[in-house]
Amino acid sequence: MSASNAPAAAAAIAHRFVDVDGIRLFYREAGPADAPAVLLPHGYPCSSFQFRRLLPALADRWRVVAPDYPGFGYSDTPPPEAFGYGFDDYAALLGRFADAVGLQRFALYLQDYGTWIGLRLAMRDPSRITGLIVQNGDIYEDAMGPKYEVIRRYWSDPSPANRAPLEQAVSEHGFRDEFVGEVGEEHAALIPPDLWKLHWPLMNTPARRDLAVRLMGALKANIDDWFPRYQTFLREHQPPTLVVWGPRDGYMPEAAGRAYLRDLPNAEFHLTDGGHWLLETHFDPVCELIRDFLARLPESLPPRRR
Question: Is 276 annotated as catalytic?
Answer without folding.
Answer: yes
